[in-house]
Design goal:
Structural class: mainly beta
Distance between the termini: 78 Å
Strand content: 35-45%
Order of helices and strands: EEEEEEEEEEEEEEEEEEEEEEEEEEEEEE
Number of helices: 0
Shape: elongated
Largest sheet: 7 strands, antiparallel
Strand order of the largest sheet: 19-24-21-22-25-26-27
Length: 397
């Protein structure tokens, strides 16, 4: 069978099937439409070949491990880019394997060109020949450098194209969430990112980092392209501008500087100016040693950072590890774009409310009006609400 040199093809070679490897037969299918266009192979005199597997991976134990329930189908399109130039394209074959999809492709270029992958995963239920819709995951392996007539991977030593599995964020009913990702990612539409800088004088200080909620809202940082890249291992607080109950999905994105005028803005946080910690995989902690985003376990529906009474923080979450002694949680109020509406809920000891304590100083409501008739008044006699006592905001339930 003759294969034209100027056509990129995802093929399975006979010797690659099960000879000494125990692989199941491979079925080839027609490639669907894709968003990458065609390679201008006439520009380049040199080629290199890639032979290997495509698979989803996730972070566990500090290493990337295969995800066995997310196998890429043959409608996936794998493209190789140098900057913003398409250098190669192909589709993995349906390999009927638990982890892998088989890929063979040709790449065009010049020696020492730095390359990266863009992988288009089409949405399900699309009509053949229609304009494709789907998601693009990008990765830039450091070893992906063009060398003329080279072969990246071979039958007995295949190259592994590891794609970080997308991370899904579920927002609370109030629209709050946190994340910390194991890869650089483009910020999804409808999301505002915040950094927590301190807990001081009974308040959580927060700084708006970026927003993809509409355009020209005048609040927070703005990107010339309207896009932002959240760096890997960066814990942040999220506020959704989406409908209640919505989720957002984070996809690995290459911080490519080869596309003039179209590169997203990188979000930067000075570690010394953030009290957030983050984890990209399940993390073991002592009970009641950190604050995590959630609702109070005392019958309140207050959303905020509360003492985490379990011992494993889920993957891809931000949390607060350092906070004032005696603080049970920091609640989050409604955000109006100008103030955070955030207040500190103070407790003398873990789980012991000060509601039934007496104070030797005056108590005021948020309008500055004195509400206790005499000193040494019991706080339990106050109506439910937020008050200022001894310079601190408290909540009476």
């Amino acid at each position: 069978m003759y294969i034209p040199a100027n056509k990129l093809t995802a093929l399975v070679v006979l010797f690659f099937l099960g000879i000494g490897m125990g692989f199941a037969p491979v079925t080839l299918h027609a490639q669907t439409a894709d968003p990458f266009g065609e390679v201008d192979d006439a520009v380049y005199d040199n080629t290199m070949n890639i032979t290997g597997y495509v698979r989803f991976v996730t972070m566990r134990g500090g290493q990337w491990v295969p995800v066995d329930d997310r196998v890429l189908g043959n409608e996936t399109v794998v493209a190789v880019y140098c900057g913003d130039e398409l250098r190669g394209k192909g589709s993995p074959a349906d390999f009927n394997d638990k982890y892998f999809s088989l890929l063979m492709m040709t790449v065009y270029g010049e020696n020492m060109d730095q390359l990266h992958f863009k992988v288009f995963i089409p949405d399900e239920g699309q009509t053949q020949g229609s304009a494709p819709t789907g998601r693009i995951i990008e990765v830039a392996p450091p070893e992906l450098i063009f060398m003329a007539d080279d072969r990246l991977g071979k039958a007995k030593e295949p190259y592994y194209l590891d794609l970080p599995a997308p991370v899904t964020t579920n927002f609370s009913a109030e629209g709050w969430a946190t994340t910390c990702l194991p890869f650089d990612a483009l910020v999804p539409d409808g999301v505002t990112l915040w950094n927590a800088t301190a807990i001081e004088k009974g308040e959580l200080a927060m700084t708006k980092l970026a927003s993809t909620v509409g355009t020209g809202d005048g609040a927070g940082a703005q990107s010339p392209t309207g896009q932002f890249l959240l760096p890997k291992n960066t814990p942040v607080i999220l506020k959704s501008g989406l409908a209640k109950g919505e989720t957002c999905e984070w996809l690995s994105k290459v911080a490519d500087t080869g596309t003039a005028g179209a590169s997203p803005s990188f979000i930067t946080i000075n570690p010394s100016q953030s009290i957030l910690s983050g984890t990209t995989e399940p993390k073991s902690v002592a009970a009641n040693s950190v604050l995590t985003l959630g609702h109070s376990n005392k019958g309140s529906h207050d959303i905020g950072f509360w003492l985490f009474n379990e011992t494993t923080i889920p993957a891809n979450r931000a949390y607060i590890a350092n906070f004032p002694a005696g603080t049970r949680g920091v609640g989050l109020g409604s955000d109006d774009g100008t103030t955070t509406g955030i207040y500190d809920l103070q407790f003398d000891t873990v789980g012991e409310s000060i509601n039934d304590k007496t104070v030797n100083r005056d108590c005021f409501d948020l309008q500055g009006r004195k509400v206790n008739a005499t000193a040494n008044s019991s706080l339990s006699s106050l109506r439910k609400g937020v008050y200022v006592v001894e310079g601190k905001k408290i909540v009476i339930r």
